[in-house]
Amino acid sequence: MDTNPVWMFCQQTGHCGQGMVFAINAPADPDPKSFNAFQARAIAINGTATTAAQTTTSFVTPPAPHWQTATATVTWGSSIYTTTYTSYDGTPPPTPAPQPQDHKIVVGADGRLAYSPANITAAIGDTVTFEFHPKNHTVTQSSFLNPCKPLDQTSTTGQVGFKSGFVPVSADATEFPTFKITINDTAPIWGYCGQKNPVDHCASGMVFAINAVESGPNNFAAFLELAKRSGATSTSASGTSTGTGSPRPTSGAVMGSTVAISGWFGLIMALVFFALV
Predict the structure, then answer these.
(1) Structural domain spans, the chain
(2) Rounded Cα gap, residues 117 and 169, in angstroms
């Protein structure tokens, strides 16, 4: 007996590709051999392993998230404030983290078309830092039902979403550029890589989620499946999809610095509170 990591999975067809794996003695994040990295690799490699017949007949597109307006009184340290926010069943309460944390997501980890970890939970006030590794990727916010399209192209309420632009990183790089966002509410955040050359990265499963509600139909596995299915109908008419050269941050984003962007829902009072402390 020893303390080396032990890796296991469910052998039922398609289960491993949906993330049904577990580990014993796995290193903690951000180690590249952490459990989250192991699960992301299982999804990235095996997510398309189901047969055509199974894929066609077994998957049902989940309904659009049904949002409701909620009001909550939040106690944070010695301060008490009331906030109105948009939520649905399963989203956490709008309570800031006692000690904000930074969550690291590696973009293109180990040369794979994957974010690692691809599915995380972050509290209000936390930050998420995307660290770009070799090749040429993006971090682009999308929506649940349109995983591989920028949020500003599909939103019916004027949402813009964050975009890192293309970030080329050489194979011999020893320092890696970063893109950071700040979590300002509890709404799920969906995103993808916009690279399409030589293959469509999003349709290959290169997507991520922050605060996805795993107990409902709009979970990360369903989002990943929708992304993979987008490859059957996507086109590459846009000349910017293969992007080269310097990144083009938008929505006030600056590479390597904090970007106060999130799911773009509510929490106006919370934002005012944070601005005053």
Answers:
(1) 1-58, 102-263
(2) 19
User: Distance between terminal CA atoms of the chain?
Assistant: 52
pLDDT per position as a tens digit, 16-43: 878 888 889 888 766 668 787 787 778 7
Residues 6+ apart with CB under 8 A from 70: 84, 85, 86, 87
Per-residue pLDDT reduced to its tens digit, 146-189:
999 999 999 988 999 999 999 999 999 999 999 999 998 888 99
8 A C-beta contact, residue 231 and residue 241: no
CATH architecture of structural domain 102-263: Sandwich (2.60)
pTM: 0.61
